[in-house]
Amino acid sequence: MCIRDRENTIFKPDTLKVGIYSDNDDDFDFKKLVKAIKDSKAKAEIIQGNLNKTKDGLMVNHRYESIHPVLEDGLIIVVPEKPSHDFMKNVGEFADETFKHYKPLWIIGDATDILAEDKQKADGVMVTKDGKDIDKFIENLSKQRFWDRDGSN
Predict the structure, then answer these.
(1) Other CB atoms within 10 A of residue 39 CB
(2) Three-state secondary structure string covering 86-98
(3) 95 phi, psi to nearest 5 deg
(4) Whole-structure pTM value
(5) Full 3-state SS string of 65-111
(6) Per-residue confidence of the chain (153 residues) as pLDDT tens digits?
């Protein structure tokens, strides 16, 4: 594909997959987040330590060990106030792999032990305290890749 073709490409979130990495007992409002993703025609996949339902009744699609972050087109990490050992064991790999593949990444909550501070400010990476910025994430998801980011670190 030549550069001119990429410049004329219409980017949209249709059919893209978003992984939502979270802890098993999180009280987060997954329904609202998943609805916004589905309304944009993307697909949301909840990733937790087990395949039970979230506290608000949504089915978990994948366990931490049964999916790799490169299979998702973007990643949302919902950090609980007190993350479990199981959550923390895998979250760094998910964040780093998403970052290294130039994909959109959104960390909701405290990103301190998840992603290096300099990476938190990179193109396509969002760190917020709540889920109110879903529209910005969907915009980032539509771009698909952030090639200006140094993903090799």
Answers:
(1) 11
(2) HHHHHHHHHHHHH
(3) -65, -45
(4) 0.91
(5) HHCCHHHCCEEEEECCCCCCHHHHHHHHHHHHHHHHCCCCEEEECCC
(6) 445 556 667 777 778 999 999 999 788 999 999 999 999 999 999 999 999 999 999 999 999 999 999 999 999 999 999 999 999 999 999 999 999 999 999 999 999 999 999 999 999 999 999 999 999 999 999 999 998 887 555
